[in-house]
Protein backbone atom coordinates (compact mmCIF):
# COMPACT_ATOMS: atom_id res chain seq x y z
CA UNK A 1 0.00 0.00 0.00
CA UNK A 2 1.55 3.32 -1.02
CA UNK A 3 2.21 6.22 1.35
CA UNK A 4 -0.57 8.37 -0.10
CA UNK A 5 -3.22 5.75 0.67
CA UNK A 6 -1.81 5.25 4.16
CA UNK A 7 -1.92 8.97 4.73
CA UNK A 8 -5.55 9.19 3.61
CA UNK A 9 -6.51 6.27 5.86
CA UNK A 10 -4.85 8.06 8.75
CA UNK A 11 -6.92 11.17 8.13
CA UNK A 12 -10.11 9.11 7.94
CA UNK A 13 -9.24 7.41 11.24
CA UNK A 14 -8.50 10.73 12.90
CA UNK A 15 -11.75 12.29 11.76
CA UNK A 16 -14.05 9.34 12.41
CA UNK A 17 -17.13 10.64 14.18
CA UNK A 18 -16.59 14.32 13.39
CA UNK A 19 -15.13 16.92 11.07
CA UNK A 20 -11.37 17.18 11.28
CA UNK A 21 -9.70 20.57 11.34
CA UNK A 22 -6.40 21.76 12.77
CA UNK A 23 -5.72 18.62 14.85
CA UNK A 24 -9.16 18.53 16.50
CA UNK A 25 -12.25 16.52 15.70
CA UNK A 26 -15.27 18.80 15.70
CA UNK A 27 -18.37 17.33 17.28
CA UNK A 28 -21.77 18.94 17.61
CA UNK A 29 -23.93 19.21 20.70
CA UNK A 30 -27.01 21.37 21.12
CA UNK A 31 -27.12 24.02 23.79
CA UNK A 32 -30.08 22.27 25.38
CA UNK A 33 -28.27 18.94 25.52
CA UNK A 34 -25.09 20.45 26.95
CA UNK A 35 -27.13 22.25 29.59
CA UNK A 36 -28.79 18.95 30.49
CA UNK A 37 -25.38 17.29 30.84
CA UNK A 38 -24.21 20.11 33.11
CA UNK A 39 -27.38 19.74 35.17
CA UNK A 40 -26.57 16.03 35.42
CA UNK A 41 -23.10 16.95 36.66
CA UNK A 42 -24.35 19.17 39.49
CA UNK A 43 -27.18 16.82 40.51
CA UNK A 44 -24.90 13.78 40.26
CA UNK A 45 -22.21 15.33 42.43
CA UNK A 46 -24.77 16.27 45.08
CA UNK A 47 -26.36 12.82 45.14
CA UNK A 48 -22.99 11.06 45.32
CA UNK A 49 -21.83 13.35 48.09
CA UNK A 50 -24.95 12.79 50.18
CA UNK A 51 -25.04 9.02 49.58
CA UNK A 52 -21.42 8.61 50.59
CA UNK A 53 -21.41 11.10 53.44
CA UNK A 54 -22.58 8.72 56.21
CA UNK A 55 -19.88 6.20 55.20
CA UNK A 56 -17.02 8.70 54.95
CA UNK A 57 -13.79 6.97 56.13
CA UNK A 58 -15.80 4.33 58.02
CA UNK A 59 -14.55 1.38 55.94
CA UNK A 60 -10.85 0.91 55.28
CA UNK A 61 -9.65 -2.70 55.41
CA UNK A 62 -12.89 -4.06 53.98
CA UNK A 63 -15.65 -2.58 51.79
CA UNK A 64 -19.15 -1.81 53.00
CA UNK A 65 -20.94 -5.18 53.42
CA UNK A 66 -23.86 -4.05 51.23
CA UNK A 67 -24.02 -2.49 47.78
CA UNK A 68 -25.37 0.94 48.70
CA UNK A 69 -28.45 1.80 46.63
CA UNK A 70 -30.15 4.50 48.71
CA UNK A 71 -29.51 7.14 51.34
CA UNK A 72 -28.48 5.59 54.65
CA UNK A 73 -28.89 7.37 57.99
CA UNK A 74 -28.72 6.86 61.75
CA UNK A 75 -31.50 4.27 61.62
CA UNK A 76 -29.23 1.92 59.69
CA UNK A 77 -26.41 2.04 62.24
CA UNK A 78 -27.17 -1.46 63.52
CA UNK A 79 -26.54 -3.03 60.13
CA UNK A 80 -23.64 -0.93 58.81
CA UNK A 81 -20.95 1.32 60.26
CA UNK A 82 -21.93 4.91 59.58
CA UNK A 83 -21.46 8.29 61.25
CA UNK A 84 -24.17 8.94 63.83
CA UNK A 85 -22.79 11.80 65.92
CA UNK A 86 -22.86 14.60 63.36
CA UNK A 87 -24.73 15.85 60.30
CA UNK A 88 -23.54 12.91 58.19
CA UNK A 89 -26.01 10.61 59.91
CA UNK A 90 -28.96 12.85 59.08
CA UNK A 91 -27.94 14.55 55.83
CA UNK A 92 -31.13 13.60 53.99
CA UNK A 93 -33.20 15.04 56.83
CA UNK A 94 -31.11 18.21 56.78
CA UNK A 95 -31.75 18.74 53.06
CA UNK A 96 -35.44 18.13 53.62
CA UNK A 97 -35.59 20.51 56.59
CA UNK A 98 -33.80 23.34 54.78
CA UNK A 99 -35.62 22.76 51.53
CA UNK A 100 -32.65 22.13 49.28
CA UNK A 101 -29.11 20.81 48.88
CA UNK A 102 -26.51 21.99 51.39
CA UNK A 103 -22.88 22.78 50.63
CA UNK A 104 -19.96 20.47 51.34
CA UNK A 105 -16.37 20.45 50.12
CA UNK A 106 -17.28 18.16 47.20
CA UNK A 107 -19.18 21.04 45.58
CA UNK A 108 -18.50 24.29 47.41
CA UNK A 109 -14.84 24.78 46.43
CA UNK A 110 -15.92 24.41 42.81
CA UNK A 111 -18.47 27.10 43.57
CA UNK A 112 -15.52 29.38 44.41
CA UNK A 113 -13.70 28.33 41.22
CA UNK A 114 -16.78 29.20 39.17
CA UNK A 115 -16.95 32.61 40.83
CA UNK A 116 -13.22 33.14 40.25
CA UNK A 117 -13.42 32.29 36.54
CA UNK A 118 -16.38 34.63 36.14
CA UNK A 119 -14.32 37.39 37.72
CA UNK A 120 -10.91 36.81 36.13
CA UNK A 121 -11.47 34.53 33.13
CA UNK A 122 -10.49 31.01 32.15
CA UNK A 123 -6.81 31.97 32.27
CA UNK A 124 -7.13 32.48 36.02
CA UNK A 125 -3.69 32.83 37.68
CA UNK A 126 -2.28 31.61 40.96
CA UNK A 127 -2.25 35.07 42.60
CA UNK A 128 -5.90 35.48 41.58
CA UNK A 129 -7.04 32.10 42.89
CA UNK A 130 -5.12 32.77 46.11
CA UNK A 131 -7.12 35.96 46.56
CA UNK A 132 -10.32 33.97 46.00
CA UNK A 133 -9.32 31.31 48.53
CA UNK A 134 -8.43 33.90 51.15
CA UNK A 135 -11.74 35.68 50.60
CA UNK A 136 -14.06 32.69 50.41
CA UNK A 137 -12.40 29.53 51.82
CA UNK A 138 -11.73 29.89 55.53
CA UNK A 139 -13.46 26.91 57.19
CA UNK A 140 -14.82 23.42 56.53
CA UNK A 141 -11.60 22.34 54.83
CA UNK A 142 -9.25 19.52 55.77
CA UNK A 143 -5.89 17.92 55.02
CA UNK A 144 -4.12 19.37 51.96
CA UNK A 145 -6.75 22.06 51.42
CA UNK A 146 -6.40 23.30 54.99
CA UNK A 147 -2.59 23.20 54.83
CA UNK A 148 -2.57 25.13 51.53
CA UNK A 149 -4.90 27.73 52.98
CA UNK A 150 -2.62 28.16 56.02
CA UNK A 151 0.41 28.53 53.76
CA UNK A 152 -1.40 31.22 51.76
CA UNK A 153 -1.87 33.13 55.00
CA UNK A 154 1.87 32.88 55.54
CA UNK A 155 2.51 34.47 52.16
CA UNK A 156 3.06 31.46 49.89
CA UNK A 157 1.44 31.16 46.47
CA UNK A 158 0.65 28.00 44.51
CA UNK A 159 2.31 25.79 43.45
CA UNK A 160 4.48 26.26 46.56
CA UNK A 161 1.34 25.68 48.69
CA UNK A 162 1.12 22.14 47.28
CA UNK A 163 4.83 21.28 47.25
CA UNK A 164 5.99 18.30 49.29
CA UNK A 165 8.38 20.35 51.37
CA UNK A 166 5.57 22.70 52.43
CA UNK A 167 2.35 20.67 52.40
CA UNK A 168 2.62 17.46 54.40
CA UNK A 169 -0.71 16.29 52.94
CA UNK A 170 0.37 16.59 49.28
CA UNK A 171 -0.59 12.96 48.59
CA UNK A 172 -4.17 13.13 49.85
CA UNK A 173 -7.49 13.11 48.04
CA UNK A 174 -8.15 16.87 48.07
CA UNK A 175 -7.47 17.90 44.43
CA UNK A 176 -9.40 15.08 42.79
CA UNK A 177 -12.66 16.19 44.43
CA UNK A 178 -12.54 19.94 43.72
CA UNK A 179 -11.31 20.27 40.13
CA UNK A 180 -13.87 18.37 38.04
CA UNK A 181 -15.48 21.69 37.12
CA UNK A 182 -12.57 22.47 34.77
CA UNK A 183 -13.73 19.54 32.63
CA UNK A 184 -17.26 20.90 32.60
CA UNK A 185 -15.84 24.21 31.41
CA UNK A 186 -13.98 22.28 28.66
CA UNK A 187 -16.38 19.53 27.44
CA UNK A 188 -14.61 17.30 24.94
CA UNK A 189 -11.52 19.50 25.06
CA UNK A 190 -9.60 16.94 27.06
CA UNK A 191 -6.11 18.43 26.73
CA UNK A 192 -7.27 21.75 28.09
CA UNK A 193 -9.39 20.12 30.81
CA UNK A 194 -6.47 18.02 32.04
CA UNK A 195 -4.06 20.96 31.98
CA UNK A 196 -6.34 23.29 33.92
CA UNK A 197 -7.40 20.62 36.41
CA UNK A 198 -3.75 19.84 37.10
CA UNK A 199 -3.15 23.58 37.51
CA UNK A 200 -5.84 23.48 40.20
CA UNK A 201 -4.39 20.32 41.75
CA UNK A 202 -1.03 22.01 42.26
CA UNK A 203 -2.64 24.43 44.72
CA UNK A 204 -2.66 21.61 47.26
CA UNK A 205 -0.62 18.71 45.90
CA UNK A 206 2.37 17.49 43.94
CA UNK A 207 3.76 14.46 42.11
CA UNK A 208 1.38 11.45 42.02
CA UNK A 209 -0.94 13.30 44.38
CA UNK A 210 -2.16 15.18 41.29
CA UNK A 211 -2.49 12.15 39.01
CA UNK A 212 -6.03 11.06 39.94
CA UNK A 213 -7.05 14.65 39.21
CA UNK A 214 -5.66 14.26 35.68
CA UNK A 215 -7.51 10.95 35.34
CA UNK A 216 -10.88 12.33 36.39
CA UNK A 217 -10.37 15.49 34.34
CA UNK A 218 -9.91 13.48 31.16
CA UNK A 219 -12.88 11.22 31.85
CA UNK A 220 -15.23 14.07 32.85
CA UNK A 221 -14.39 16.03 29.72
CA UNK A 222 -14.67 13.09 27.33
CA UNK A 223 -17.80 11.66 28.99
CA UNK A 224 -19.90 14.36 27.32
CA UNK A 225 -19.23 12.56 24.01
CA UNK A 226 -18.36 9.01 25.14
CA UNK A 227 -20.38 6.47 27.14
CA UNK A 228 -18.13 3.38 27.11
CA UNK A 229 -16.67 3.44 30.61
CA UNK A 230 -13.94 0.88 29.98
CA UNK A 231 -12.79 2.80 26.92
CA UNK A 232 -12.77 6.00 28.98
CA UNK A 233 -10.58 4.44 31.66
CA UNK A 234 -8.25 2.84 29.10
CA UNK A 235 -7.66 6.16 27.35
CA UNK A 236 -7.35 8.07 30.63
CA UNK A 237 -4.38 5.87 31.57
CA UNK A 238 -2.44 7.63 28.80
CA UNK A 239 -2.65 11.04 30.52
CA UNK A 240 -0.90 9.67 33.63
CA UNK A 241 2.93 9.92 33.59
CA UNK A 242 4.99 6.78 33.19
CA UNK A 243 6.36 5.51 36.48
CA UNK A 244 3.41 6.83 38.48
CA UNK A 245 2.04 4.41 41.09
CA UNK A 246 -1.43 5.61 40.10
CA UNK A 247 -0.84 4.66 36.47
CA UNK A 248 0.38 1.26 37.63
CA UNK A 249 -2.77 0.97 39.71
CA UNK A 250 -5.06 1.83 36.79
CA UNK A 251 -3.41 -0.86 34.66
CA UNK A 252 -3.95 -3.33 37.49
CA UNK A 253 -7.59 -2.34 38.00
CA UNK A 254 -8.28 -2.74 34.28
CA UNK A 255 -6.67 -6.18 34.37
CA UNK A 256 -8.56 -7.23 37.50
CA UNK A 257 -11.82 -5.98 36.03
CA UNK A 258 -11.25 -8.36 33.13
CA UNK A 259 -10.44 -11.25 35.45
CA UNK A 260 -13.00 -10.92 38.27
CA UNK A 261 -16.75 -10.52 38.01
CA UNK A 262 -17.00 -9.65 41.71
CA UNK A 263 -15.93 -6.07 42.31
CA UNK A 264 -15.02 -6.99 45.90
CA UNK A 265 -12.10 -9.07 44.65
CA UNK A 266 -10.74 -6.09 42.78
CA UNK A 267 -11.26 -3.86 45.80
CA UNK A 268 -9.39 -6.40 47.97
CA UNK A 269 -6.46 -6.34 45.58
CA UNK A 270 -6.43 -2.53 45.51
CA UNK A 271 -6.22 -2.50 49.30
CA UNK A 272 -3.53 -5.16 49.50
CA UNK A 273 -1.22 -3.45 47.01
CA UNK A 274 -2.04 0.26 47.01
CA UNK A 275 -3.08 1.12 50.55
CA UNK A 276 0.52 0.36 51.51
CA UNK A 277 2.22 0.77 48.15
CA UNK A 278 5.94 0.00 48.07
CA UNK A 279 8.21 -0.45 45.06
CA UNK A 280 11.97 -0.84 45.21
CA UNK A 281 13.10 1.74 47.78
CA UNK A 282 9.96 3.88 47.54
CA UNK A 283 7.22 3.59 50.16
CA UNK A 284 4.06 5.66 49.63
CA UNK A 285 2.45 7.53 52.54
CA UNK A 286 -0.49 5.62 54.03
CA UNK A 287 -3.84 7.22 54.73
CA UNK A 288 -7.55 6.50 54.43
CA UNK A 289 -7.66 9.77 52.44
CA UNK A 290 -4.77 8.90 50.11
CA UNK A 291 -5.36 9.98 46.53
CA UNK A 292 -3.96 6.61 45.42
CA UNK A 293 -6.41 4.10 46.91
CA UNK A 294 -9.37 6.47 46.66
CA UNK A 295 -8.70 7.31 43.04
CA UNK A 296 -8.39 3.64 42.14
CA UNK A 297 -11.73 2.91 43.82
CA UNK A 298 -13.25 5.57 41.57
CA UNK A 299 -11.88 3.68 38.56
CA UNK A 300 -13.34 0.45 39.99
CA UNK A 301 -16.77 2.06 40.31
CA UNK A 302 -16.70 3.36 36.75
CA UNK A 303 -15.66 0.01 35.31
CA UNK A 304 -18.05 -2.22 37.24
CA UNK A 305 -20.84 0.37 37.13
CA UNK A 306 -20.85 0.23 33.30
CA UNK A 307 -22.43 3.67 32.91
CA UNK A 308 -25.43 3.03 35.18
CA UNK A 309 -25.84 5.89 37.64
CA UNK A 310 -27.16 3.97 40.64
CA UNK A 311 -24.73 1.09 40.28
CA UNK A 312 -21.71 3.34 39.72
CA UNK A 313 -22.40 5.63 42.67
CA UNK A 314 -23.33 2.67 44.87
CA UNK A 315 -20.02 0.97 44.08
CA UNK A 316 -18.08 4.16 44.76
CA UNK A 317 -19.69 4.36 48.21
CA UNK A 318 -19.40 0.67 49.00
CA UNK A 319 -15.71 0.58 48.09
CA UNK A 320 -15.09 2.60 51.24
CA UNK A 321 -12.22 4.88 52.29
CA UNK A 322 -13.13 8.59 51.92
CA UNK A 323 -16.02 7.44 49.80
CA UNK A 324 -18.27 10.49 49.56
CA UNK A 325 -15.60 12.08 47.38
CA UNK A 326 -15.31 9.46 44.66
CA UNK A 327 -19.08 8.93 44.82
CA UNK A 328 -19.61 12.62 44.08
CA UNK A 329 -17.08 12.59 41.25
CA UNK A 330 -18.47 9.40 39.71
CA UNK A 331 -22.01 10.73 40.05
CA UNK A 332 -20.95 13.86 38.21
CA UNK A 333 -19.33 11.79 35.46
CA UNK A 334 -22.45 9.70 34.82
CA UNK A 335 -24.52 12.88 34.89
CA UNK A 336 -22.28 14.37 32.21
CA UNK A 337 -22.49 11.14 30.24
CA UNK A 338 -26.27 10.64 30.25
CA UNK A 339 -27.81 13.89 31.47
CA UNK A 340 -30.08 14.69 34.40
CA UNK A 341 -32.69 12.02 33.55
CA UNK A 342 -30.18 9.29 34.43
CA UNK A 343 -30.46 10.22 38.11
CA UNK A 344 -33.44 8.62 39.89
CA UNK A 345 -36.05 11.06 41.20
CA UNK A 346 -36.07 9.27 44.55
CA UNK A 347 -32.55 10.59 45.14
CA UNK A 348 -33.21 14.21 44.17
CA UNK A 349 -36.86 14.91 44.95
CA UNK A 350 -38.05 12.57 47.70
CA UNK A 351 -36.51 13.98 50.87
CA UNK A 352 -38.30 13.47 54.21
CA UNK A 353 -40.07 16.82 54.23
CA UNK A 354 -43.56 15.63 53.37
CA UNK A 355 -44.54 16.38 49.79
CA UNK A 356 -41.96 15.45 47.13
CA UNK A 357 -40.22 18.34 45.39
CA UNK A 358 -41.12 19.10 41.80
CA UNK A 359 -37.51 19.78 40.79
CA UNK A 360 -34.20 18.19 41.86
CA UNK A 361 -33.27 19.42 45.32
CA UNK A 362 -36.10 21.93 45.12
CA UNK A 363 -33.88 24.00 42.82
CA UNK A 364 -32.00 25.27 45.90
CA UNK A 365 -28.35 25.12 46.92
CA UNK A 366 -27.69 26.46 50.41
CA UNK A 367 -24.18 27.80 50.90
CA UNK A 368 -23.39 27.33 54.58
CA UNK A 369 -19.61 26.98 54.26
CA UNK A 370 -18.10 29.56 51.86
CA UNK A 371 -17.70 33.10 53.11
CA UNK A 372 -18.65 36.26 51.22
CA UNK A 373 -20.82 34.47 48.68
CA UNK A 374 -24.63 34.36 48.63
CA UNK A 375 -26.18 31.98 51.12
CA UNK A 376 -28.73 30.64 48.63
CA UNK A 377 -28.34 29.85 44.94
CA UNK A 378 -30.83 28.26 42.63
CA UNK A 379 -29.41 25.18 40.96
CA UNK A 380 -30.69 26.59 37.66
CA UNK A 381 -28.41 29.57 38.27
CA UNK A 382 -25.37 27.35 38.89
CA UNK A 383 -26.16 25.31 35.79
CA UNK A 384 -26.62 28.36 33.57
CA UNK A 385 -23.49 30.07 34.88
CA UNK A 386 -21.45 26.91 34.26
CA UNK A 387 -22.92 26.65 30.76
CA UNK A 388 -21.95 30.26 30.08
CA UNK A 389 -18.31 29.53 30.93
CA UNK A 390 -18.38 26.35 28.82
CA UNK A 391 -19.65 28.34 25.84
CA UNK A 392 -16.88 30.86 26.36
CA UNK A 393 -14.29 28.05 26.46
CA UNK A 394 -15.64 26.41 23.30
CA UNK A 395 -15.37 29.68 21.38
CA UNK A 396 -11.94 30.55 22.78
CA UNK A 397 -10.59 27.15 21.76
CA UNK A 398 -11.72 27.57 18.15
CA UNK A 399 -15.22 26.13 18.30
CA UNK A 400 -18.38 27.76 16.98
CA UNK A 401 -21.96 28.50 17.90
CA UNK A 402 -24.48 27.99 15.10
CA UNK A 403 -28.24 28.03 14.59
CA UNK A 404 -29.82 24.93 13.06
CA UNK A 405 -33.56 24.37 12.77
CA UNK A 406 -34.26 26.82 15.56
CA UNK A 407 -31.71 25.33 17.93
CA UNK A 408 -28.37 26.65 19.15
CA UNK A 409 -25.62 24.19 18.30
CA UNK A 410 -22.09 24.17 19.67
CA UNK A 411 -19.39 22.85 17.35
CA UNK A 412 -16.78 21.65 19.82
CA UNK A 413 -13.07 21.15 18.97
CA UNK A 414 -12.70 17.82 20.73
CA UNK A 415 -9.15 16.79 21.57
CA UNK A 416 -9.51 13.01 21.44
Quick summary:
The protein has helices spanning about 5-15, 30-50, 90-100, 110-120, 125-135, 145-155, 180-185, 190-200, 210-225, 230-235, 245-260, 265-275, 290-305, 310-320, 325-340, 345-350, 380-395; strands at about 20, 25-30, 100, 280, 280-285, 365, 375, 400-405, 405-415.
Q: What does this molecule look like?
A:
- This protein is an alpha+beta fold and 416 residues long.
- 50% of the residues lie in helices and 8% in strands.
- The strands form three sheets. The protein has a four-stranded antiparallel sheet. A three-stranded mixed sheet has the order 3-6-7.
- Strand 1 and strand 2 form a beta hairpin.
- Helix 2 packs antiparallel against helix 15, helix 4 crosses helix 17 and helix 11 packs parallel to helix 13.
Secondary structure layout plus pairing:
Layout: H1 3-15, E1 19-21, E2 24-30, H2 31-52, H3 91-98, E3 101-102, H4 108-120, H5 126-136, H6 143-153, H7 181-185, H8 190-201, H9 211-223, H10 229-236, H11 245-259, H12 263-274, E4 278-279, E5 282-283, H13 291-305, H14 309-318, H15 323-338, H16 345-348, E6 365-366, E7 376-377, H17 379-396, E8 400-404, E9 407-414
Parallel strand pairs: 3-6
Antiparallel strand pairs: 1-2, 2-9, 4-5, 6-7, 8-9
Helix pairs in contact: 2-14, 2-15, 2-17, 4-5, 4-17, 8-9, 9-10, 9-15, 11-12, 11-13, 12-13, 13-14, 13-15, 14-15
Amino acid sequence: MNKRILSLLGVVALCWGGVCQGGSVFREISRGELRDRIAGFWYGELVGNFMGYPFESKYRDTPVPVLVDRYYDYRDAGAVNIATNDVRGVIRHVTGHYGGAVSDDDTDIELVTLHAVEKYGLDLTYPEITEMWKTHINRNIWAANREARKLMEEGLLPPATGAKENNRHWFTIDPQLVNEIWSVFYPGMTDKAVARAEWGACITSEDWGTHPTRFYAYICSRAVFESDTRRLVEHAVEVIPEGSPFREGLVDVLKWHGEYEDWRETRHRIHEKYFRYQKDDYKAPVSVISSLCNGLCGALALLYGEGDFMKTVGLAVSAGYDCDNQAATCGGIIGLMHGAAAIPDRLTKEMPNGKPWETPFNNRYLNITRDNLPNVFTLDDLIDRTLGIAEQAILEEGGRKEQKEGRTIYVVPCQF
